[in-house]
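seq as requested:
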Amino acid sequence: MEPPEEEETPAGASAGIEGAEPGEELKASDEALTFMSSIEPTELQRCVFLDSLVTVSESGRDLGKFSVTVEFARRVQRPCMLLHAQSQGAIDDSPCGTTVTVYLTSDLEVLEEEYHEYVKLESHSLNKRCHMVQQDGQMVINKVTTVGEEVTKESVCYPMSVLRGLVTEGSSLLLMRLIALRKKVPQHMTFISLDQDLHIIHTTFSELALKQLEVESETVEVFGVERVVQSYKNRPTIWQCYFLDDGHLVNRVVVGSPVTMRLLQLSPQLEKGFDKIPLAWEEDMQMRSKFLDRKEELKADHASYLRQHPEIRALISDFLQFLLLRKPEDVFQFAREYFLPFLSHHPQQARTKDHKL
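struct tokens:
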């Protein structure tokens, strides 16, 4: 999930990108666009499941966890796919993590994506947030990078016509699930993506040879997909992912990195259970959205009820005014005695006891 390293190249430059000329507008290939438009609803239904892997070092040390969930959702009353991916762990004992939440159409067009990456170092911390959303035929992108106390903000807008075939950090995970289920990568699968400086770049997908991997002491045959993310100046970033027949991710690695994400259990992980990840709902776009939606729903329902019963406001107003005039020591007892006459039906025993108080 980690994006390529940041560049210093000015926006619009294209030196270092394979097949690009200065000033040339990068586009997705016809094969890539055809693949996106050919996705069937039944294929998406097969993609709705959880992947949960562990992150390990070359020596086998457990460094953290990686998970991806896909589900059906609605955004602005529009059916869509919701993908949420999260990695948490530590590198050189420094806590780090990445969270991606993306809403996608059935042909993987990005409606909205929230990307968050952090590294907590002893001397300072690094925090990156990037939010993109479709508005009025444009993709509006805002990025905030915090290094220690220094904050850098970037904003850019691209017409959606320029972003045909866009694949982001989030949508690439669902795209590879679909490819794995088809067990075939068409030739010339070149999409466009965005680098760390929000430049448009190329990203390609190709098929890897079938491979035998050992999972839970069992050898399984897996299908491989390679994703190459081009870059200005620097070398491309190459991801290699291997999948089971049912689309579950088995192995994920950046070529040249000593860190590997791998599956430990072949059986359904939801049935066996997995360690809980600390909940940070304020940083989770999906949960925050549900919280705000529910909050507005309750506010509207409460306001409607108050409009239907105006006597409530008068009753509360009278009580508060009487309370402030008397200023009793025991507010609860005062409230009990104040509202007791409003009870239309209460047991005789309680009534007798009340009179003795």
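The first helix runs from residue 30 to 37.
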